[in-house]
Each structure stands twice: as structure tokens, then as C-alpha cells.
Specification:
Largest interface: A-B, 44 and 43 residues
CATH architecture of chain B: 3-Layer(aba) Sandwich
Low-confidence stretches of chain B: none
Number of helices of chain A: 20
Shape of chain A: elongated
CATH topology of the largest domain in chain A: Heat Shock Protein 90
Low-confidence stretches of chain A: 130-141, 239-274, 480-489, 671-679
CATH class of chain B: Alpha Beta
Number of domains of chain B: 1
Distance between the termini of chain B: 12 Å
Structural class of chain A: alpha+beta
CATH topology of chain B: Rossmann fold
Radius of gyration of chain A: 37 Å
Largest sheet of chain A: 6 strands, mixed
Order of helices and strands of chain B: EHEHEHEHEH
Helix content of chain B: 40-55%
Shape of chain B: globular
CATH architecture of the largest domain in chain A: 2-Layer Sandwich
Number of domains of chain A: 5
Number of strands of chain A: 24
Strand content of chain A: 15-25%
Strand order of the largest sheet of chain A: 16-20-21-19-18-17
Distance between the termini of chain A: 97 Å
Strand content of chain B: 15-25%
Strand order of the largest sheet of chain B: 2-1-3-4-5
Helix content of chain A: 40-55%
Radius of gyration of chain B: 13 Å
Oligomer: heterodimer
């Protein structure tokens, strides 16, 4: 029976990469002096599983490499070897090499033999040479007796208590030579009253005659019980001392024809682009199937009304009920489908322990990384795209935020800096915070740089938050020396842009000498949005409900006109700029008089504006259709959706709208100044 | 046909074992660690147990020890999947009540041969 082992490769790779991640995080914990036996066990198990799997599925190079890792881990597990920083570092290096090997095999590309050899040598250096040859199977040779063998087999009384069966052993022996003679010795059998039916009292003398049987063949039959029996094997041709034919039986334990396999693998073309897959908990799928069932029932109920020729008013109430049910089922189904895409944020967080470990030695800083809320779930697409911005922010905190150990001590802080990564839900959003207890942002330096780059004018007066926000502006970098970690041409502006593309926002708060907090807010999903429909003229626009602070009727006395044609609205103690949407999008409103319409106060990245609209129309969940893929990117809009009546409504991107408004204002101010000069 | 319980924390190995045995007509129930296996073994009956040794939550040897103590499993064959280098593991397994072992790495044919031998 031949079974194509290739069908299990996908699973093997998937679990091996998971195993490597587990090893990596386990090793990093070890490094922090947390020598916990269960942790070492977990690391060992992962290495062991990779070794077992790779051996079974024919990836010999991986199996050999993992063998030495396993040996080392086994020594650590048994307490034979101290856990030291250098051992952990070597093992971390092994994890990297192993990951590359597996990737290479998966893609069908060449394994980097040099790095494997380097790491193998490093491992062997630690282990000492004595274990170097242990991996190869023992090669044994044994003689084949000319006439046959005489076997005396006397099992211990309780041999059957390990599930071994003497009948099975005899049956196996029977299959070896041409002819078998069996003699049972019942001498030690007690009388019937004394007999314990669970014990074995007999012994056997067996003659194996003819056939190509070696002593090892016989020993192998008894391999499982050789510690539970007396076993004597003698050659029937002893007196002739026939030991001429030697037969090596080294092919018995290896995979058949490993060479051929290796060649096949090499000839296999590299795999085409891999389809991305997602692991879904079975209960989520059951939930879906359940919901679909409900939908089908509702549908068949509703379709009865369509077929009924005597449809009259009495049916309307039931029709309405059915539609209500349909609505709730559709919503539940939608939520279940969305949940399938949700994954815990630990997928994005798991790379940080390693990153912080590597970077802190690079910068010679001492850093403790604290992660909380790793189980917070968010959309897979968001999760994949948030990784790079997060890495950038963490690097940034490590490079610019946390001070060198001596500086910290001088400032009365502990030598070790802390970076806290946390994720949590807040009002329908996912919030990710990157918090450090470093020096905080340098306000003076930021201002100086911003003036140099012409981002602000000399006379501009900015609040602290406004100053800090400058670091997100394009063309801004305070690093004096461009290090290879931060400031490699990509700045905070890219971080902000990437996060905005996900429909999220990022802001920073900082206190000198106490540290900084970067806060990222992300929508739970990219596909659906809770929208507030607003009417302007004949058009309907959608504002994300999460951005809305309040909606209000305009009191004329609260409107103040300021420089140029800018207007602000006094709301309690704040002055909020009024944005006339019809101005920005060039449409004709129902009314241009402010108190005939409404103001919707919205906030993004710490900035507030009041949007002037004709009317509030209602709230609903809308499915976001990308403008970028279907049309082109339009500034101030995050997408479009199709409303119940079939018309298209545009979805406003609040953060971009604020930018747009500020740019428009700046332009007006400039043109007014210009006009003044001309007059 | 015989009912076999296959226990391994590595899903690729478990899939391989289960697929091979099912292909030969056996019924197979899978479990990912010793505790899960123990629960399944107590709730139905099996003619053969095949278990990995190194597993989280409950390892294979503890599992065999516990199961061997159950009246229904006094004589049931229990095989460990083990690597060649671990001779002490074999001894520990035997002491816990294992019938025998299958040495990793193994291929489907080797697995089937051993299973056929044990089940007769």
C-alpha cells in the first residue's frame, strides 16, 4: 500500500512554523532568567515534533539538524546542562536557521548549506563531539545459521500485563523460516485452584528450520519483551561453526530509498504563489451553518406569501414579522462571517520579544517588554497590515525613547527601560498602545526641525500636542544620525499613512522624562462600518459613527468669524472650526444659512471640527466598497457604499477631511495676504 | 474492524497515522494529548492505542500508566511512537505498561506492518 506523504506536508510546515515561534518565545523567556522546567519542556517538545515530522516526511537535512538541538534541549531539561545566555543565543540562531531551511524546502529553493553547517558546528561545540555520530542508525551485522535456530523463550509471569501476547510472538516467529517446531513446557503450571488467569506460566522451546533467518530477525520479534523474559538463541548448526555469510541489515529502519526522494524534491518546480489560508475554529463554522439554516427557513416562509394567490391585508402582519426575522438573521449571519476573519493580535505581537531582544543588544540598552491583551481579536487583513507600523513604533521607542542605562541611572530611573505593548477594545474600536518610560519627545528639537523644514512658521504658537503631532508630518525626522534601525527613510508619516489606510488613526502623548505613549485606534473590520447618513443638497454622505462626538442645532450667537472666511463655533469652552462640506465637495446645499442646518462635531487624531450638513438621515451599517480599486483614490473619502434604494453614497474620512480643510484654509490665508499686498 | 486510538500533539503526524490506518480499513479516533486520549479511551473501547511520548498537558507515558490501570485496558496493546535515541524512554514506557514501540521516523508501510502484527 503506498500513501502519498506529500498531502501532509502543508500541515507539517504550518505546525513547524508554529513550533518555531513557540521555541523562540520560550527561549526569550529563558534568557530573562526565567528557568522554568515546563518552559524548557515546551521548547523541547517543539524541537522534538519538528524532528519527528521531518524524519517521517523525508526532510532528512532538517531531521539531522534538529537532532542536535534536541540533544542539547534534552540535557537542559534533565538538568545536565546549565541554561546560559550563550546556549540560549545559539538555540535562537538555530531557530532562525531551521526557519530558513523549512522555508527553502517549502518554496523548493536551495537550502543555505553554509549557515546550517555553521550552526551545526556551534551546536556540536557546545555538546562536545561525543554525540556527533549518535544520529546515524546503528549498523549491525549478524550471521545466518545454515540449518536454523533453537530458541528458548521463558516469559515472566506478568508479561501479559503490558498487553503482550505470547501467541502473537509465536505467530510472528512462524512467519520467518520454512518450518517451525514448537514445544510447550507446562511444568510450572500450578493446579487449577491456584492458577491466576492473568499470568503466564508456560515456557517454549522453538526450533526454526531453514530459510534465510538471522539472529537479529529473531531478536526483533522479541524486542518489545526482552526485559520480561529469558531468551536463549542458539544456532542449530553450532558444531559446524558456520558463520560464512554476513548480511547487513541496516536498511531496515530507514525510509526506503532516501536518495530517490531527495532527487524528486530537487526536480519539483517551485510552488506558485501560495494561497493564503485562515484557521477557523470549528464552533465558528457551526454557528454559520446554523445561521444559514435559519435563513433558509425564513426564506421558505416568505416565499409562501409570494405563491399565495389570495394574498390580502391579513397576511401583511405576518409578512412584516418574516421580514423582521430575515433582518435579524442577516445581521447575525453577517456578524458570524465577520468573526471568521477575526484573529488574536498575538499574531502581530509575537515577533516583538525577539525584536526587542535583538535591538536592545544592538543599542546596548536594557529593555523589559510587557505585552497585554494579546487575545484581543481583530480582522485578519488589519492584523497583517498593522505589523510593520507597530515594528516601526517599537523600534522608535527603543531607539529614541528609552535612554542609555547610564543616562537613566543619572536621571534617577532604574537601569532597565520598559516598553509596554497593549491592545484592548474601546467603543467598537481596537486600541493598541506603545508606551515607553523613556525621555519623552524633545519639544524644542521638534520645533526647531519643523521650522527648518518649513512645516511651521516662526511665529506659530502651538500646544504641546500640536508640537508632538508634527512628527507625523511628511519630511520630518529628528534622528541626528540616520541609524540602520530607525530613520531609514521611512518616517512617522508613513506609519500614519499606513494606519489611515486601515481606517485607523495614530496619536502621541508625551511627558518630558516620563516617556511617550503612541495610541493606535483601528476599526474592528475593514469591510463594514457603522455609518451616520447625512444629507447635503441632493447628496447623501456617510460619517463614521465612531468619529462623531455630538450633533447640534446651531445657535447663531455661538458662531464667530475669524481671520479670512474661517468660522468657528463656540461649544462650551472650545472653539471648533466649522467645515462647510458643500464648499469642499463643490455641491449646492439646500441652505447656506448655518442655523437652517445642523452641525455634526467629529474628532480625529485629537482634532475636532464641526461639519455643517442640511440634515441627519439615520444610522446604518454600511458595506465599504473601495474607491481606490473601483475608481481612484479621492482625498477626504475613505470609500463608497450602496444604499438600500440603490444609490451610491460616499463615506467621509474624517482625518483626511480635517487635513483638507486645513490646507484650504492655509491657501485662503495666503491669497488674502497676497490680495492685501496688491491693494 | 478494529478501533484504534491515535494520540499525537503534532497534527501532521496524527493525520498521517490516521490516514494510513483508515486506508487499511481500521477505525481511527484521534487525540492531541494524553488527557484528551484518556477521556476518549474511557468513553469508548479501543483494540489498540498508538501514542506519541512527548506531548503537552499529559505525556504518553503518564497516559499509558493511567490507562493500563483501567479494568477495560488491562491487556489492550499500547504502542509508543518514539525516537531511536531514547532507549530510556522505551524502558520508562515499558515500566508504565506499554506493549511496545514504533521507532520514528517510520513510513506508512512500517506502521501498518506493526499494527497488523499486533492485532493479528
Amino acid at each position: 500500500m503506498s500513501i502519498d506523504l506529500e498531502q501532509f506536508h502543508e500541515t507539517f510546515f504550518e505546525e513547524s512554523f508554529e513550533g518555531l515561534d513557540i521555541m523562540e518565545s520560550g527561549l526569550l523567556e529563558l534568557e530573562q532568567g526565567d528557568v522554568d522546567l515546563e518552559n524548557i519542556n515546551t521548547i523541547f517538545r517543539s524541537a522534538h515534533s519538528i524532528k519527528g515530522g521531518s524524519g517521517t516526511f523525508g526532510f532528512t537535512a532538517v531531521a539531522e539538524f534538529t537532532h542536535d538541538m534536541e540533544t542539547l534541549l534534552d540535557q537542559m531539561r534533565n538538568g545536565e546542562r546549565q541554561v546560559s545566555a550563550s546556549v540560549v543565543d545559539t538555540l535562537l540562531g538555530c531557530v532562525d536557521v531551521l526557519r530558513n531551511m523549512l522555508n527553502a524546502i517549502k518554496d523548493g529553493s536551495e537550502i543555505d548549506v553554509d549557515s546550517v553547517a555553521d550552526m551545526t558546528n556551534a551546536l556540536k561545540g557546545i555538546l562536545g563531539e561525543e554525540s556527533a555520530s549518535q544520529a546515524s542508525t546503528e549498523e549491525s551485522s549478524s550471521t545466518v545459521a545454515a540449518k536454523g535456530w533453537s530458541v528458548h523463550f521463558k516469559p515472566e509471569l506478568d508479561i501479559m500485563k503490558t498487553g503482550n501476547d505470547t501467541v502473537r510472538l509465536l505467530r510472528e516467529l512462524n512467519s520467518l523460516p520454512e518450518r517451525v517446531e514448537v514445544l510447550v513446557d507446562n511444568e510450572s503450571l500450578p493446579s487449577l485452584v491456584e492458577i491466576d488467569p492473568e499470568e503466564c506460566y508456560q515456557s517454549w522451546n522453538i526450533n526454526l528450520i531453514g530459510g534465510d533467518v538471522s539472529e537479529d530477525d529473531i531478536r526483533e520479534v522479541f524486542a518489545w519483551v526482552d526485559d520480561e523474559c529469558e531468551l536463549n538463541i542458539e544456532s542449530l548448526a553450532d558444531e559446524e561453526n558456520y558463520t560464512g555469510i554476513e548480511r547487513r541489515d541496516d536498511d531496515r529502519r530507514e525510509n526506503p530509498t532516501p536518495d530517490r526522494r531527495a532527487i524528486e524534491r530537487r526536480n519539483k518546480p517551485a510552488k506558485a504563489t501560495e494561497s493564503s489560508s485562515i484557521r477557523v475554529n470549528i464552533s465558528k463554522v457551526d454557528e454559520l451553518i446554523n445561521m444559514v439554516g435559519e435563513l433558509v427557513i425564513t426564506q421558505s416562509m416568505l416565499s409562501q406569501f409570494g405563491e399565495d394567490e389570495n394574498f390580502n391585508e391579513t397576511h401583511i402582519e405576518r409578512l412584516k414579522d418574516g421580514l423582521t426575522q430575515l433582518e435579524s438573521h442577516t445581521r447575525e449571519l453577517q456578524e458570524s462571517v465577520m468573526r471568521i476573519r477575526m484573529m488574536p493580535i498575538s499574531f502581530a505581537f509575537q515577533r516583538f520579544p525577539r525584536l526587542v531582544h535583538d535591538l536592545s543588544s544592538h543599542f546596548e540598552k536594557k529593555i523589559e517588554l510587557i505585552m497585554t491583551g494579546e487575545t484581543t481579536e481583530l480582522d485578519k487583513t488589519v492584523l497583517e497590515k498593522i505589523g510593520d507600523p507597530l515594528v516601526h513604533l517599537v523600534r522608535n521607542s527603543l531607539d529614541h525613547g528609552i535612554e542609555a542605562p547610564d543616562v537613566r541611572v543619572k536621571n534617577g530611573k532604574s537601569e532597565t527601560g520598559t516598553i509596554e505593548l497593549s491592545a484592548f477594545h474601546q467603543g467598537g474600536n481596537i486600541v493598541i498602545e506603545i508606551k515607553d518610560d523613556g525621555a519623552g519627545l524633545n519639544k524644542a528639537k521638534i520645533l526647531e526641525k519643523a521650522k527648518q523644514n518649513g512645516l511651521i512658521n516662526q511665529e506659530d504658537r502651538l500646544s504641546d500636542d500640536q508640537v508632538y503631532d508634527l512628527i507625523f508630518r511628511p519630511g520630518f525626522s529628528t534622528a541626528d544620525v540616520v541609524s540602520d534601525v530607525s530613520g531609514r527613510g521611512v518616517g512617522m508619516d508613513v506609519v500614519r499613512r499606513n494606519i489611515r489606510e486601515l481606517g485607523g488613526m495614530v496619536e502621541v502623548k508625551s511627558i518630558p522624562d516620563e516617556g511617550s505613549v503612541f495610541t493606535i485606534r483601528l476599526p474592528l473590520t475593514l469591510a463594514i462600518l457603522d455609518g451616520q447618513l447625512v444629507g447635503i443638497g441632493d447628496e447623501t454622505y456617510i460619517l463614521p459613527v465612531i468619529s462623531i462626538i455630538e450633533s447640534l442645532q446651531v445657535k447663531p450667537e455661538c458662531i464667530n468669524a475669524v481671520a479670512g472666511n474661517a468660522e468657528v463655533y463656540r461649544l462650551r469652552d472650545e472653539y471648533i472650526p466649522i467645515v462647510r462640506l458643500y464648499h469642499i465637495f463643490g455641491i449646492v446645499p439646500k441652505s447656506e444659512v448655518l442655523n437652517e442646518g445642523l452641525l455634526v462635531v467629529v474628532e480625529a487624531e485629537g482634532k475636532k471640527i464641526a461639519i455643517y450638513v442640511d440634515d441627519l438621515l439615520g444610522q446604518q451599517q454600511v458595506v465599504i466598497k473601495s474607491l481606490k480599486t473601483n475608481f481612484k483614490k479621492v482625498e477626504g473619502l475613505s470609500g463608497a457604499t450602496i444604499l438600500g434604494d440603490g444609490t451610491v453614497a460616499l463615506i467621509i474620512d474624517i482625518a483626511e477631511l480635517i487635513d483638507l480643510y486645513q490646507k484650504n484654509m492655509a491657501r485662503t490665508v495666503v491669497s488674502i495676504k497676497g490680495g492685501g499686498l496688491a491693494a | 474492524m478494529a478501533n484504534i486510538l491515535a494520540v499525537d500533539d503534532s497534527s501532521s503526524m496524527r493525520q498521517m497515522v490516521a490516514f494510513t490506518l483508515k486506508g487499511a480499513g481500521y477505525q481511527v479516533v484521534e487525540a492531541a494529548d494524553g488527557q484528551e486520549a484518556l477521556n476518549k479511551a474511557k468513553s469508548q473501547s479501543f483494540d489498540l492505542i498508538i501514542t506519541d511520548v512527548n506531548m503537552p498537558i499529559m505525556d504518553g507515558i503518564t497516559f499509558i500508566k493511567n490507562l493500563r490501570g483501567e479494568a477495560n485496558y488491562k491487556f489492550t496493546p499500547m504502542l509508543m511512537l518514539t525516537t531511536e535515541s531514547s532507549a530510556d524512554k522505551k524502558a520508562a514506557g515499558k515500566a508504565a505498561g506499554a506493549t511496545g514501540w514504533i521507532v520514528k521516523p517510520f513510513n506508512p508501510d512500517q506502521l501498518l506492518n506493526t499494527v497488523k502484527k499486533v492485532l493479528g
